[in-house]
Amino acid sequence: MKLISQSKCLSFHRPQIMGILNVTPDSFSDGGQFSSLDAALFHAESMLKNGAHILDIGGESTRPGAPLVCAEEELSRVIPVIEGIRARFDCWLSVDTSKAIVMKEAALAGVDLINDVRALQEKGALKAAIEADIPVCLMHMQGQPQTMQVQPQYPDVLQSVHDFFKARIRVCEEHGLNRNKMILDPGFGFGKNRSHNYHLLSKLDEFHQYGLPLLAGMSRKSMIFKLLGRSAEDVLAGSLACATIALMKGAHIIRVHDVKETSDVVQVFKALSEVEEMSGETQ
Ligand code: 7PJ
User: Fold this and answer.
1) Does a structural domain hold residue 5?
2) Of 49, 84, 127, 183, which has fewest CB within 10 angstroms of its CB?
3) Which residue, by CA, sits nearest to atom 13 of ligand 1?
4) Domain membership flag for residue 7
5) What is the pTM of this model?
6) Ligand 1 centroid – CA 256 distance (Å)
7) Which atom of ligand 1 is nearest to the CA of 22?
8) For 10, phi and psi rounded to 5 degrees?
């Protein structure tokens, strides 16, 4: 399986690491440390050196309860960072946005991938993504970030995510988005309580039935830090445990803050997969 974007190809012979680059003043867990351009470029370079394959640039905080950001503000946060990285590095660049105008401008500035936590449901987003002609990550979310963690409920969380994926794939295809441009993500922490999140993690492999790349993002999320009773900055081992489990269940892309440590995990996982493949061949 592989993803094509313009002249680039992302192959999944090994899992790919997506490094998180928040450019919001109220970022989920880096406290806005990297909101200035220089700091963002420095962080981007360090993630690439440490083994990131994709950098995910986000200018709208979608952490629970975060305020909405207007398009002008989001553009002013992400576009200079995209241009700055694009001018210096030839890596895969992703923009974490739900807004059509940000998708459009980011694509013009050279991003390779749209990462939309609202799965192209905002006004004009599907059209913008199709016109940009680059791959899109379609993520499941129940509700909206402002209120999504207030008692999330499902009759069956796994079924709801399946129903959502089926519906979004169908609508996107009907509008002309090629299936080979889609990535799926169950959206850990987006309108889900602890048991919903761990249930989805335990069944992550079920989402292979669509034949599409799977992205998993659990790094420093409340499913880890609330469980451990710590702050989001102090859950590295828990985040690596979740990454490991996701890899064992076949995730293709792991979205993380701690790139260096996750890269170690991926290398260990890869060594295991290689001997398993070899012994499978001789059986
Ligand atoms: C995710 C995301 C995720 C995808 C965020 C945070 C919250 N995009 N953007 N999947 N999470 N595709 O980083 O903790 O899980 S923002």
Assistant:
1) no
2) 49
3) 28
4) no
5) 0.95
6) 9
7) 13
8) -110, 115
Residue 207 lies in a domain: yes
Cα(227) to centroid(ligand 1), Å: 19
pLDDT digit string, tens, across residues 27-69: 444 555 554 888 999 999 999 999 999 999 999 988 888 888 9
Angle at 170 between CA 10 and CA 163, to 5 degrees: 95
What gap in Å lies between CA 88 and CA 113, rounded to an integer?
A: 18
Q: Is the CB of 225 under 6 A from ligand 1?
A: no
**Domain of 228?**
14-275
- Strand 8-11 to 2-5 pairing: antiparallel
Who contacts 190 (Cβ-Cβ below 8 Å, separation ≥6)? Answer: 62, 117, 139, 140, 141, 142, 145, 148
What is the spatial distance between Cα 86 and Cα 4, in angstroms, rounded to a whole number? 18
1 is a domain residue: no
Question: Is 90 exceeded by the pLDDT of residue 146?
Answer: no
What total number of domains does the chain contain?
1
| Model pLDDT for residues 13-24, shown as the tens digit of each residue | 999 999 999 998
Coil, strand or helix at 15: coil
**Average pLDDT of the residues of the chain:** 94
